[in-house]
Structures are given as structure tokens and as C-alpha cells.
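Moderator note: this is an archived Q&A kept for reference. The question asked for a predicted structure of one protein chain; the sequence and the answer are reproduced below.
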Amino acid sequence: MVVRSGSGFRFLAAAAVLALAGCGSTVNATPDATATVAVSPSVSVVASPAATPKASKSPQAPSPTPPDPAPPDLIGSWQTMLGTEKVTLDLTEGSYRVHRGPEVVGGRIAVRGEEIDFSHSTACEATGTYRWALEAGALTFTSIQRDPCAGRAKVLDGKTYTTAP
């Protein structure tokens, strides 16, 4: 019979070895911490760390909320057209991702009231600050000052996005 017990394996094995050894039983221990206790000529108990289930990696704690998170109304996928090209903007509490053709660029966002900062882009480190408005399901961005990242300005400034299907 093999004794198996999750986190209590060592305690259970030690208790069994001590208890049975005190009753006149024979105890054999090996360097790998396997213990065999002969209770009677026909019954033995084997305790081995190899029989102990391995602990699984504990789940990661959720990411902390960013200091200036996007409100729930902004979070999600939005689409607009740039000429004949579809542009998708994905917004989370603290990040953004723009899909334009084969290109995907992302970074961080911080929302304070009606202003939103786009920063730490994978294409441009500078920050662009925009005013956003959401009316009747249409999300519009207007730059407050010239965005130093021309590519980001091209897909945001003056553009109106609708919820992506």
C-alpha cells in the first residue's frame, strides 16, 4: 500500500514511521526519503516523496489597475476607415492596440476626464494627448496639441470610431 497525501506527506510519513516503529515493526529508510514500514510479515507501508503530487504553479494575481484607467464605456474594440483601409482600435483599462492592415502598434493610455494620453507606443515613445467624446455609439478623438507620433495622429486625430462587430 502506498501512502499519498498532498502537503501533509512528510508529516504523515514521519508519524507513521514513528508510530509503527514503536510497536515493534521494522522500519527501512533510504537516502531518497522513501520509508518502508513492515507492520507484519504480510503488510508493509511505503511512503515516498515521489508519490506526492507536485504543487501546481499558483495563478498570477490580476494586473493592478493603472493610475488613470479608461472608463468602461471606452473599453473594447472600435473601428474606422482610413480611405479604403479598415483600422481597429482596441482599448483596455490602461493600454491600446491599433490594427491597420498588417501593422499592429500598441502602447499605454491614461484617461483623465475627457482627455486621453496615448504613450509608450511600440512605434513612438512620445505622448499624444487627445480629447475624446462618445455620442450615440460614435467615439471621436481630437488632438489637444500636435501629436509627435505622425502615424498615431493619422489614425486618431479627427477620426470617428464605432463599435467593432
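Archived answer notes: Residues 76 and 136 are 16 Å apart (CA to CA).
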